[in-house]
Amino acid sequence: MSSTPVIDVEHLHLAYGDFHAVKDVSFRVARGELYALLGTNGAGKTSTLEIVEGHRRATSGTVRVFGRDPRDRAAVRPRMGVMLQESGFSPDLTVAESVRLFGELSRRRDSVPRVLAVAGLTHKAGTRAAQLSGGEKRRLDFATAVYGTPELVFLDEPTTGLDIQSRDALWDAVDRLREDGSTVVLTTHYLEEAQQRADRIGLMHRGTLHQEGTVHELTRTLPATIRFTLADGAPELPLPAVRRDDGRVLVETFDLQADLYTLLGWAHAHATELRGIEAGPTRLDDVFRALDNP
Ligand SMILES: Nc1ncnc2c1ncn2[C@@H]1O[C@H](COP(=O)(O)OP(=O)(O)OP(=O)(O)O)[C@@H](O)[C@H]1O
């Protein structure tokens, strides 16, 4: 029998006046999972998460976090860490002081130097928050969210504004959190990050949970692609493809391996170069593009 979910959202509804931002959304997140709540702009992700985090009251529906109402702050907050898109650090406090203050408020135990090291901020310990760069502020947000290794961590667009080294370091830190058993809820517009990391994805669109499942479940109804460029006068292709006037070719396929094999055999037999060939499975980007626009 599966254990009680860490997050259990049933028929959640949120209206801002006449506008229904979240409509009948239900999902569960199991212990240890990395669940990515993704969606188009204005889909209702932030509104949903604000309710799950206990910051906002639902219009109707039930939300349970660790089996409790998330507005029961005393019971729930010590068990969760939240990395918001914008957090309010006092500009006069140093990085180390900010981490200590937020750590004490969380009521979890940890060591400030450890958390600074995890977030890659050891060298900025004595710098005032006001003097941090955008990426360093994100790291400070991350540091306060993971102080004390909470059982549940919300990461709201955690890598926005981070350079590639900082992104890699952040994801390494998330991997370590997960090894320690933390459950992670992620929102991001960097779909490849969700594609690589999420155990399951909830895809919101216009206030509803439009699709939910693993990456494989979300992408399997859409074709994979092969792209390359052919020189003028190349012979007829061995499979159906979209050929542009400038020589670019797009093949859509549900059997990537077999079609690639056919194509490479054909190119070899005709001594034809498939310039810049790229073959890839269906990506989450494709799932998003298939959504109807507002
Ligand atoms: N306080 C508010 N009052 C009225 N409407 C709001 C309020 N907050 C959000 N909305 C509207 O609710 C909808 C959902 O907003 P929300 O911020 O939850 O979307 P989102 O999925 O997080 O979007 P994004 O990816 O753009 O951050 C949007 O149309 C937004 O304009």
Automatic annotation (TrEMBL):
Q: Which residues form the ABC transporter domain?
A: 7-231
Q: Which InterPro entries match?
A: AAA+_ATPase (IPR003593), ABC_transporter-like_ATP-bd (IPR003439), ABC_transporter-like_CS (IPR017871), ABC_transporter_ATP-binding (IPR050763), P-loop_NTPase (IPR027417)
Native organism is Streptomyces zhihengii
The entry's localization annotation reads: Cell membrane
Q: Check the record and name the PROSITE patterns matching this protein.
A: ABC_TRANSPORTER_1, ABC_TRANSPORTER_2
Is Nucleotide-binding there in the keyword field? Answer: yes
Short name of one Pfam family: ABC_tran
What is the name of the protein in this document?
A: ABC transporter ATP-binding protein
For this protein, the parts annotated as crossing the membrane are none
